[in-house]
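Order emerges. For instance:

***
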Amino acid sequence: MSWEKVKLGEVTESCLGKMLDQKKNKGSYKPYLANVNVRWGFFDLDNLQEMRFEDDEDEKYGIKYGDLIICEGGEPGRCAIWKEQIPNMKIQKALHRVRVHDIMDFRFVYYWFLLAGKQGALKQYYTGATIMHMPGQKLKEVLIDKPPLIVQQRIGAYLETFDNLIENNQKQIKLLEEAAQRLYKEWFVDLRFPGYENCKIVDGVPVEWKKKKLDEIADVIMGQSPKSEFYNKEHKGLPFHQGVGSYGARFVQDDTYSTSFTKVAEANSILFSVRAPVGRLNITKNKIVIGRGIAAINSKSGFQSYLFYALKERFFKDDILGNGAIFASISKNELLNQVFVIPDAKIMSAYEKIAAALDKKIEVVDMQLQQLVEARDRLLPKLMNGEIEV
């Protein structure tokens, strides 16, 4: 099916966000989105920063429901639809705000960018020899499809049903994880574990509990990135992961592969981010090669769920804006020397049983989430190319 082609600048209004300049910026501190906060299809709001905005800048740098927020650098073109997740949000200069005219459906434009990003069709609009960017003028020149508005709306609504289900699964994972984390805090931070009323406390911990360094209770492998010639996307070697993300699924998904097995994490290892934001956690279902941004951690006693939530409690705090990390980076020695309170075997086993059951539910929901992503991605090119009508 042949659809009209138009330049993005003909059917949208766009602008860059505000330059971060602590000396020149005036006004009151307000949260803003940076490049790192924008993922494909959603926003990672765990680590928001603030800068000064004046009242008359609200319209210029503010964003509204339905705006597309598009990365200018990093991975130029990566974008998501803003749906008022947080009121009065602003954007930093590394991002474009794109507001569509009424002849376009903002969901259709987003899915066009998602497909173009997957197919590499946006690279022709990049500038820069080593660090890629998509400046405002190049963004306006992006040539997109413009089917009739009713067709755009149908495609956008159909694909959005998948993304709504994906988002619901993400929320379920978060709620299940929060339940295990609350129980960890109640038992091992507030010391309200079963039988605490009859337990003697010495130096702030129950008398039968111990304080141990991480290297006493866990095996830790620090990642090391292979040379670039070992990378591929053709499923040669083992999956390779450079960093840990908190955006979306709890379990890491395979993308790039490596034929160099410099540092390997076994299946079901905890993946721990050693770079900002330190303490992000994922779990790998498969054996993978890990890069310099990751440490693979496994409990020596088999209490993997306890260890996961102990690490999360230590490194991510609710009283820091957006659940931010308390370290910018952490060395191997600093990580290995972290001291944790280890309860007696009975209490540890009781917690592990509950937390592991919650983690099993998380794994099931995560599997459903990935199936939804795969189904949407199979349909995406067929709908956006007019091969399938809705």
